[in-house]
Structures are given as C-alpha cells and as structure tokens.
UniProtKB/TrEMBL annotation:
Residue ranges constituting the P-type ATPase C-terminal domain according to the UniProt record: 883-1129
Protein name: Phospholipid-transporting ATPase
Binding annotation for Mg(2+): D409, T411, D857, D861
Species, as recorded: Triparma retinervis
UniProt EC number: 7.6.2.1
Catalytic activity from the UniProt record: Na(+)(in) + ATP + H2O = Na(+)(out) + ADP + phosphate + H(+); ATP + H2O + phospholipidSide 1 = ADP + phosphate + phospholipidSide 2
Enzyme class: translocase
InterPro entries, per database record: ATPase_P-typ_cyto_dom_N, ATPase_P-typ_P_site, ATPase_P-typ_TM_dom_sf, ATPase_P-typ_transduc_dom_A_sf, HAD-like_sf, HAD_sf, P-type_ATPase_IV, P-type_ATPase_N
A GO cellular component entry from the record: plasma membrane
Active site positions, chain numbering: D409 (4-aspartylphosphate intermediate)
SUPFAM superfamilies referenced in this protein's UniProt entry, alphabetically: Calcium ATPase, transduction domain A, Calcium ATPase, transmembrane domain M, HAD-like, Metal cation-transporting ATPase, ATP-binding domain N
Organism domain of life: Eukaryota
Transmembrane segments: 45-66, 72-91, 281-302, 343-363, 914-935, 947-966, 996-1018, 1024-1042, 1054-1075, 1095-1116
Length: 1232
C-alpha cells in the first residue's frame, strides 16, 4: 500500500511517485536511431540485404572471395529504404510528442496551503506535469481533470460532482461522484476555506492498476478514518460538468493514473500476408542457395575442362600453355583455382536481387492506400451519427478478404441498443404497451396506486428507485433529462415515470419522487450495491418516509429466480418470460425484501465494516450483499425491445453466402438468442438445430452429449465408393470440361466476343442450400468429421455448458468437430472472458488455422476483439472502448458487408498480385544472370553494370505499387451479386505455394526468352559486354512493364502516368545522364549512344530487339491466360467475364442477357469446382488445407430419421421435415 502526504511540508515524501507528465511517443532524440534501426532490422528482408552488403565488403576489400558487385549497389538502396521507413516513423512520433506537450503544459489550479487562510484561499497556477501526489487541486466546470483525485468538496449540494467519462469509456451520460464522508453524516466541509488549517492528512490506498471501476482506500483526516471507493474518485481524462468547481486530493499522477494504466497497447497483429511473405522469403533464399551451388558446380566443371586454356586471365592451370609470342603474360600473377569454395559467396552476391529490396516499402504504401480508401468510403459513412469508417490498423486490410469465421456480439452490434419498455409481468398478469399483447399499462398503474401497496406498487417502485440515474436539465426544453449508465436503465426509469412514479430530484443520499396530483415522496438511499457482469444484478437499500426499510433488486432472470422464494404467480411469470424471449425481448426480474429496523441496523454495520476495509473489501462487500439479496419476494418482470439495426438480416445472409461462418456470442437467454437468430436470418426455418445444455450442472452430461453427436454425424463418413469409381468420375468430368473449353474456342472464332447487358443480370448467390433436390455427395471413408460442412445445421450452446467445455481438451475437440459442420453457432449466457476464450479456441484449434474476425460495440467485447486476428468495433451507445481496442471501426453492422466483401477482397487480391509481381520481376533478373553464366564461364561476372543493376527495383518500383493500390479485378456490384468470388481470399487462392511456383516458373521461362532472344538478335553485332548487357537490360525493363500492363485490370490516369513514367525514367533520364557521366563511370561512358545509334548494325539490332523481345514476353503471358480461361477456369474467371460483359458461347450469352437464372447459376457452379464442391484438389495438397465436403440436406434428414424422439432429445437435435414445417412460440420447437 502507498501513503501520500496532504500538506506541502511533507512534499519530499512524494519523491518516490511518478510525475504527472505523460509520454506516448516511442522515441526520444537519443533513442530514435537505435530503436528505429532495431525495428527495421526485425524484418527478415532488411537483415538479408545488410548481410549481403557486408558480404560485398568482404569480397571487395579482402582476398577471401571476389564480389561481382560493389557494396554500394546494395547498401545504397538499402539505406534509402531504411531512411524512408525511419522518416515515416519519426514524423508520426513527432505528432505524438506535440500532443503530449500540449497536454502536459495545460494549466490547472493547486491549493497554496502556506499562503491560504479560511477567509482567503489562494491557488497557484501550475502546469499539469507539475502536479504532485498530495496536492489539493481545484477543477472548474467544463474542465478536464488533470490527475486521479479523491473528491473532498464541491460547489453542489452534499459536495457532489458530475463528470462525463467519454474520454475514458466513451459514455456521454453524466455520472455523479460523492465527496468523501469526512464528517458525521457526510462531507465535513461546506466551503473551500474550511479545508485550510486542519492539520495533515494521510491516505492509504491500493497500488496503481488499470481497473477504472474500482478503488479501495482509507483517508485519515481531522481525526477520522474515512473509507473511499470509486464513487469518491475523479479520474484523469474525465470532464467536470454542471458543477461550478470541485476540490480533490491527488492520489495518482502520470503513468500511475487509471486512464494511462488502462491504455496499454493491444498486442501487435501481424497480417496473414506478412507471414506468408516471410515464409516466401525463406523459400526464395533456399532457391538462391541452390542456384548459387549449381553455378559453383558449373564453374568447377568449366575450370576443369577449360582451365588450361585460360592463360589470358592468368589462371594458374594455363601457366604452361602460353601460345607462342605471348611473353607479356610471363609476368602475370597467376591465380590458383584451389579456392573455388569462395565462388559460392560470389554467386550468392550476384543473385542477391532474388528478393526485391523495396518489397516492404511497397507493401506498406499499399496498406496505407487501402486504409485511406476505408477511411474515406462514403458508402460506409453513417450520416445520422456523423461517424465515418476508420482503419485504425493499416496493415490488416488484406486480412479482411480472408475471413472464415466472424464472432459477433448481439446487443448494440446486431441490435440498435435503443431500449423500449414494451411488456411486463406482475402478479401473474402480462401487461403490454402494444395493443393486443396483454393487459394495458393503464390497468397496472391503476392497480398500483389504488392502495399504494402490493406487488404492482412494489414493481413500479423498484423501477423508479433501483438505478443510478443522474438528472440533467435540458437548456432548450427546461425539462429534466435522465442520464443513465445503460439504455436499459433509462428505459426502466422512463417506464416508471409513465406509470406515475417520476424521479424529480436526486442527491447523493436521497431520491424525490413525484406521484402526481402534487404528491411527492422522499426516499433515503442507505446503500447501493452496483451491477457487474459477474453478479448480474443490482440492489438499493432504501428508507421510506414512514421509517420502514426495504431492498429493491433487479437482475437477470436466471440469477433472480434462484434468489427468490416461490410464490403463486411464479409459474405464470416463468411462462411470460419464455414468451417474451421468443419475441426477442430482453428480460429482467424485479424483487423486493423488507427489513426490520434491527435487521437493517445489523446489516448496515456489517456493510459499513465491509466498505471501510482496505484489504479484501470486495469480498467483504459481496458477503454482506448476500444477506439482503437472498430470500427475495418476486414482484415482476420486464421485457424491453432492442430492435435490429438496418439491413442486419441482408448483411448476415450475404456474409454467409460468401462461405463465412458466423458465431453470435450473447449474454441473453437461449430462447431470446434463437428468436433473434431467426429475425436476422442467421437461422433458417429449414435448419436442424443442435442445443447443448448442461443437465443439473453436470459436466459429464455435456461430454457425453458431444460424444454421441460426434458418433451420430460420424456415421456419414462410413459411406464410400470404390477409389477407382471416384477417380473415373473425376476423369470424365475433366474430359467434359476440356470439350467445353474446345467448343468455346471454336465458338469464339466463329461468333466473336459478345457483351451482356449487366443491368439485366439477376442476382444469384450460387448457394445450393435452397434446393431440396441436391444430389448426395459421396464421402470418402475415414473422413475427419471436421471436414464435413452443412448449410442446414446450427449449434446453440449456453454459458454454463461452455464453462464445462473450455479447459477440457477432449470436450473442446468434440465441440469444434460439431461446430465446424454447422453453418451458424449461437452461444448464450456467455461472459466477456468466455467470448475471448471461444475466439481463441477456434483460432488455435481449427485446422488449417482460420482467419477470425470479432465485432462488438461495448467494453465486454474488448477481449474477443483483441483475441481475433481482425477486430472491428462499432461506435455505439456503450462507449468507445471496443472502438479503441479495434483494428477497424464502423458505425453500423451493415457496413461490415462492404468492409469484408468489397474492401477486403480487393485489398487481398491486389496486394497478392503486387507481391507476386515483385518476386517475379526479380526472379527474371536473377535467371538472366544465371543464363549469362553459361557464356561467361560461370566466372561470377555480372551481365549488367553495377549502377544499372542496382537501379532495377527503382525503375520498376511503381508498377507493382500501382497494382497494389488501384487494381480491381471486378466491380463491387459483381462481387456483391456473386458472393462465391469471396472464396479467392477465404481459400487463400492468390498467394500460396502453387501460385508462387507458377509465377516462378514463368519468371524462369521469361528470363530465357529475354536473354536468348536478345542474344539471337544482337549477339552477332554487339559492340561489347556493356552494350550487350544493357540491351538485355533494356529489353528486360520493357518486358516487365509489358508484363505489369498485362496483369493490370484497372487503368486510370495515375496508373498510366507511372507506368509510362517508369519507362521514361530509365530510358529518357537515367541512361542519357549516367552513360555520359565520365567522371563517375568511365567504363560506361557512351554506352547508351552506341547502343541505340551506333553503326555496324548495332542500332538496328537494338531497336529490333526492343520491338520483338518484350512483345514476345507479353504474348506468352497472354497465351497462358487465354489457355487458362479456356480449360482451367474458376468461379472467379466466370464472374470476371460476366462483369466485363464477355462470354464465348452465343447461346449462353443470349440466356444471360435474358436474365436466365439457371444459366447464370450454371456458370458459377458447374465449372472449375473448388474445395466447397466436395472433391479433393491438387492445389490443396500443396497449401496444406483439408478439403471440405458438403453434408447436404437430404443426407442430414435421412440420418436424423433413424432417431426416435427420445434419442433426438438426448442429442439435443431439433429437426425439421418438409416444407410445411413451422416454428411455434417456444423458440425453436417445430411442428409439422
């Protein structure tokens, strides 16, 4: 525990406390270079190029081996890349330091004890950073609180103070804080002057911690030890409202304050593509080592065969073979060939451009562009709330296009979090504000106030007294507004007002209630036992005007029913609660307990002792609360409507049609959650529901149920066909596809390209689940249960059952096996910690490891948002803690569709292409050097001049950047219509081993075309190595620009400018300047002029090569794409054709133009099947992804028909049969 002084005389004791300044900057002037460089070299590619530079230095300045390139050819570009990244980091940090300075130098007022008297209180102007523990600080109205203070006195009655905590938790409603009870019945001070001259004070309180809703301490002042808690603390970051001034003792400063302790940075999330790039770099480095070893072997073989003839370069083996008349070589320093091992490093250096040096900078710039698009997307701007979308983490934009699982909160995320009191159950009668929903609310009011006692009156009194509402006068209307900590509480107190029990005045210890007709009552509040997520209830202990005492309590139905005694109306209330839940209403149960004066005094003593404890206060308070919150009398239940947000059902439907599985994690009871599931189309009427609930709180029943479910659905994997039958079926299907491709080619030349009318295309999802006549899928024997996938199953599980599952490895495995089959999962009655554990369970145990996204709007969602790979926060009515902890922020759930389906997919596809192209162009460069080795005796000599070679990534830096920033393979309209195209990211189709291998193979082939074709055109007339090498280099640059153009789908002015500018930068700026810079590179002087305008056929050969060779590269690439579009088509290819209005089948084209749904569906579903079409794919073997198999509706129903009703009940299966099924009123039970 810590002890802090009150007076300035003991200020020296404060030396052990931190000062009140804050620093959010990452660097200082001293640490910037070291820390920034350390962060840059945490990247694998930067370490690689640093090692290459060191190797070049060793090869250049020692005799260990020869370096074919000078160190600056790599060290210069590396320094430039590092400088750009470090400058960006530095500029961002300067902004943070400026913000810190502005906050730290804000002026506040501190009591000057030595200069003050009771009649003349003096305050010293002091900057925030100079406020110390023990200072008495005065905060004025509408001012921010500079440190964590214990409130001693304010200008309001009972020294209460009203604060707004929007900067801490995002909640804009006012909260009341009470001064420490330093007197007998409350605060001892009625004015500022009374604080002066009372001697010293000491405070014993808890160590700094991040818990903003808790505080434990004891204030020893004016001869009394006063307990203080969170209700007496003004937190730094809050704003004083509706209070002229407030004075408090400073207890926490700077980094010890709650807001700074709570503002810990969330864990750094690495994008999935970044992980793939790091793995790719390892593969490329391995390939570089292999290529270097092969070249070294070639050198050894060449030296053994030709070494005796290499007298002209002073090879020792040729010393005795000097031709006649070559006496000049007798003085040669003959080099031995014994150090051939050193040539491995020579070749490794030569091939260092295998990895693009600018890759990380390119990817970062692309990520910033993607974040900019999200931040400025007007289609994700909520005009009503004036809230735009926001990318808080720029590097995760591509992960949005790879999501497989979405975990969503319900209240405030799927619903509006705008609560409306609709129904209630009192004394066995259901009352409703909706006509026809029950007895009218007027009847309840009449019953309550007829005698002003009884359950009806107690019910309304509980609504009006059990809360923490703060009153605020509306300046425009002059009426009192209710400021509540939650929308539920405001709805309940407003309902009490409508029922004639209106709160009109509140102090720290009383509530004044207007009962109408000029009648008012004052209730004295003796204790408030607050609500929290563990207790799930709230209580107040009140004293009425006649001196009687009562406890009013409200909370979750499952908690309150356990704590109440049975009454005659209990069964009717339970029935009403189930009925309310099936309508999707949020329910609470209200209770009352009367206390005798003796009971009250005894309990108050116990409560005060608990509150006054410094250690173990929470446990003592919980034990004290147990007495008054047990053996309660039920007085009623409430039902509050929380309507769905706009277009939630459509958004969920579209996301699920993309192949994404949605899990809803909510604290509501199971019936409410199921009903909301049907309302938002998460659950469909034809679905089979699996309910998992613990019986008698026995964990063994859960495991047994899961084992039986796994055995039941595992029966389907026992059916199999002979391997050769399945193989022959696949072969025949492939033959049909090839025939279709050939027919399309012939049709293309006979009919030509046609255009479809995009506006006439009907929306089609490609979702087979709507067809009852789906052909059964033949499943291979021994199939893992997790590989099954059904569009017609949903899992419902409650929190108590999850508590038994989580932590038990076998139960977790069984649960995941069943959940992976289901299209949707709903977890009910879950706590915030369970939400995070569920996300972790899926993220770490589903194979292959999936991409998870969590979305929520409240503080209870922070855990799962930070646990998921991608976290999305909704700017709702529960504060901004979810947004502050998220990677992306949106205002409405419906914007998630565009964020994932449009931005996510575009970002993923274009960034993958950018990365692949970056590797591809460098592979082409490297293999041109390799092929040159056959003509240079594998000597390690570079084909290109050093500066020309090092400028390669600079000249070709913009095309991949333009692809990564602007490229769109299809319009957003097509992506939203044809949801299956999202599979490109979900199945990681664009960046995996087969795709990378394809680009590498094409890179090797294109390198051969560029080198050998150029050699064939200009080899006979070349005027020297640099002229030939630069000709090859020019063809290479132009060929890569052509290749970039062939891979670009989106052209605009910026793309065209930088594409053409890249070529002009090399040909019109660099080459003319550098080839005429004699002082810097005399050996390269005049090369450009001789190459392009030299005699002897040189110029003609050069321009012929520039015409033919790059064009050949482009033609080869286009031919490969044409072949692929004809014979190896995918869903994405067909969607792209429809997007562009192109089809090669005339009859098919006409049907599409006429809007024939079956034709469009056939285009997307019958060609180029992938994992979700029920067959093994060769490319899946390379990417280590288990194929999924459809578990269609017919097979599911046939399997479930084998069960009798008792077995279904035991397994928790609620099945449906036939189109005549309907859902009845008890939330998920079906009738035929």
């Amino acid at each position: 525990m810590r002890t802090g002084p009150f007076t300035a005389e003991e200020e020296t004791i404060c030396g052990g406390f931190t000062d009140n300044s804050i620093t959010t900057g990452k660097y200082t002037i001293v640490s910037f270079w070291a820390k920034s460089l350390f962060e840059q070299f945490a990247r694998l590619a930067n370490i690689y190029f640093l090692v290459i530079s060191l190797m070049m230095m060793v090869g250049t300045y020692t005799d260990l081996y020869a370096s074919p390139l000078t160190p600056w050819t790599t060290l210069g570009p590396l320094s430039f890349v590092l400088m750009v990244s470090m400058v960006k980091e530095g500029l961002e940090d300067i902004k943070r330091h400026r913000s810190d300075y502005q906050i730290n130098t804000t002026i506040t007022e501190v009591l000057d004890v030595s200069a003050s008297t009771k009649d003349n209180v003096v305050y010293e102007k002091r900057e925030w950073r100079n406020v110390k523990v023990g200072d008495v600080v005065r905060v004025m109205n509408n001012s921010d609180i500079p440190a964590d203070l214990i409130l001693l006195h304010s200008s309001e009655e009972q020294s209460a103070a009203y604060i707004e905590t929007a900067n801490i938790d995002g909640e804009t409603n006012l909260k009341v804080r009470n001064a420490a009870n330093t007197g007998k019945e409350g605060p001892a001070f009625s004015s500022e002057g009374e604080l002066v001259g009372n001697g010293t004070a000491s405070i014993e309180y808890e160590d700094p911690n991040p818990f903003i809703h808790t505080f434990t301490g004891t204030l020893d002042f004016i001869g009394k030890k006063t307990p203080v808690d969170q209700l007496n603390v003004l937190l730094r970051g809050a704003t004083l409202r509706n209070t002229r001034y407030a004075l408090g003792i400073c207890v926490y400063t700077g980094t010890d304050t709650k807001i700074i302790q709570n503002s810990r940075q969330s864990r750094t999330k690495l994008a999935n593509i970044d992980s793939t790039v790091n793995t790719t770099i390892y593969l490329i480095m391995f390939a570089q080592c292999v290529l270097s070893a092969l070249t070294m072997i070639g050198f050894v073989i060449f030296e053994k065969r030709q070494g005796k003839n290499l007298w002209y370069i002073c090879v020792a083996d040729a010393q005795d073979n000097l031709p006649a008349g070559t006496d000049l070589y007798s003085d040669c320093e003959w080099e031995s060939g014994s150090d051939t091992w050193g040539y491995f490093f020579t070749f490794f250096i030569l091939y260092n451009n295998f990895i693009p040096i600018s890759l990380y900078v390119t990817v970062e710039m692309c990520n910033y562009a993607h974040a900019h698009y999200i931040d400025n997307d007007l289609e994700m701007y909520d005009e009503e709330q004036d809230v735009p979308s926001m990318a808080r983490t720029s590097n995760l934009g591509s992960d949005l296009g790879q999501v497989e699982y979405i975990f969503s909160d319900k209240t405030g995320t799927l619903t509006q979090n705008v609560m409306r009191f609709q129904k209630c159950s009192v004394d066995g009668v259901s009352y409703s504000k909706v006509e026809g929903g029950g007895e009218a609310m007027g009847a309840l009011r009449q019953a309550a106030f007829a005698k002003k006692r009884g359950r009806a009156y107690d019910f309304i009194a509980c609504l009006g007294l059990c809360h923490t509402i703060v009153l605020e006068k509306n300046d425009e209307t002059g009426e009192l507004d209710y400021k509540a900590e939650s929308p539920d509480e405001e709805a309940l107190v407003s309902a009490a007002k409508e029922l004639g029990f209106s709160l009109v005045e509140r102090t720290s210890s009383t509530m004044k209630i207007d009962l109408g007709s000029g009648v008012t009552k004052v209730f004295k509040i003796h204790a408030t036992i607050p609500f929290d997520s563990e207790r799930k209830r709230m209580s107040v202990v009140v004293e009425t005007e006649d001196g009687s005492f009562a406890v009013y309590c409200k909370g979750a139905d499952n908690i309150m029913l356990e704590r109440s005694r049975a009454a005659g109306s209990t069964s009717a209330m339970k029935s009403h609660l189930s009925y309310y839940a099936t309508e999707g209403l949020r329910t609470l149960v209200l209770c009352k307990k009367e206390l005798g004066k003796g009971e009250f005094r005894k309990w108050m003593d116990e409560w005060k002792n608990a509150v006054n404890k410094t250690e173990g206060r929470d446990e003592a308070m919980a034990a004290a609360a147990e007495f008054v919150e047990s053996d309660l009398e039920l007085v009623g239940a409430t039902a509050i409507e929380d309507a769905l947000q706009d277009d939630v059902a459509g958004t969920i439907s579209d996301l699920m049609q993309c192949g994404i599985k949605l899990w809803v994690l909510t604290g509501d009871k199971m019936e409410t959650a199921i009903n909301i599931g049907y309302s938002c189309k998460l659950l469909q009427d034809e679905m089979t529901l699996i309910k998992i609930q613990a019986l008698d709180n026995n964990p063994d029943t859960i495991k047994l149920q899961l084992q039986k479910l796994a055995g039941h659905f595992g029966q389907v994997t026992k059916l199999s066909k002979n391997f050769f039958e399945v193989f022959n079926e696949r072969v025949e299907r492939r033959k049909t596809q090839w025939r279709t491709g050939i027919r399309r080619v012939s049709t293309m030349f006979s009919v030509g390209n046609r255009h479809t009318n995009e506006s006439s295309m009907t929306d089609d999802t490609g979702d087979d689940s709507a067809d009852d006549e789906v052909e059964e899928t033949i499943l291979p024997e021994g199939l893992d249960l997790s590989q099954l996938e059904s569009q017609d199953m949903a899992l419902i599980i409650d929190g108590p059952s999850l508590a038994h599952v989580l932590g038990d490895k076998e139960s977790e495995r069984l649960l995941l096996q069943i959940a992976c089959i289901c299209k949707a999962v709903i977890a009910c009655r879950v706590s915030p910690s369970q939400k995070a554990l569920i996300v972790r369970l899926v993220k770490r145990n589903v194979l292959p490891l999936p991409m998870t996204l969590a979305i929520g709007d409240g503080a209870n969602d922070v855990g799962m948002i930070q646990e998921a790979q991608v976290g999305v926060g909704i700017s709702g009515k529960e504060g901004r803690q979810a947004v502050n902890s998220s990677d992306f922020a949106i205002a409405q759930f419906r914007f998630l569709r565009r964020l994932v389906m449009v931005h996510g997919r575009w970002n993923y596809r274009r960034l993958c292409k950018c990365i692949l192209y970056s590797f591809y162009k460098n592979i082409v460069l490297t293999f041109m050097l390799f092929f040159y080795g056959f003509y240079s005796g594998f000597s390690g000599k570079s084909l290109f001049e050093d500066m020309v070679y090092s400028g390669y990534n600079f000249f070709l830096g913009m095309p991949p950047l333009m692809i990564g920033m602007f490229d769109k393979d299809m319009s957003q309209r097509t992506m939203v219509r044809f949801k299956r195209v999202y599979m490109s990211g979900r199945e990681r189709m664009d960046l995996n081993v087969p795709t990378l291998s394809s680009w590498m193979v094409q890179g090797v082939l294109d390198a051969g075309v560029l080198y050998f074709f150029t050699f064939g055109v200009v080899g006979g007339v070349s005027g020297g190595m640099y002229i030939f090498g630069t000709t090859c280099y020019s063809a290479l640059v132009l060929g890569m620009l052509y290749r970039a153009a062939g891979s670009t789908y989106t052209w605009n002015g910026v793309v065209a400018f930088f594409w053409a500018g890249s070529g002009l930068l090399y040909a019109a700026i660099f080459m003319p300047i550098y080839s005429n810079w004699y002082e810097y590179s005399p050996q390269f002087y005049g090369v450009a002029r001789e190459m392009a305008a030299g005699g002897g056929g040189q110029a003609g050969a050069f321009w012929l090569a520039m015409l033919l060779v790059p064009t050949t590269v482009l033609v080869v690439d286009l031919a490969k794409k044409l072949w692929r579009s004809m014979f190896v088509t995918t869903v994405i290819d067909h969607a792209m054709e429809i997007d562009r209005g192109i089809t090669h089948d005339a009859e098919e084209m006409i049907r599409v133009m006429e809007g024939d749904e079956e034709t469009i569906k056939g285009i997307l579903s019958t060609r180029g099947e992938f994992a979700d079409d029920g067959m093994y794919k060769w490319w899946l073997a390379f990417s280590s992804r288990l194929p999924k198999f459809k578990f269609d509706r017919r097979k599911l129903r046939l399997l479930n028909r084998k069960l009798d009703e008792a077995s279904k009940k035991e397994l928790g299966i609620v099945d449906t049969e036939g189109p005549g099924c309907r859902r009845n009123g008890d939330g998920g039970v079906w009738e035929g």
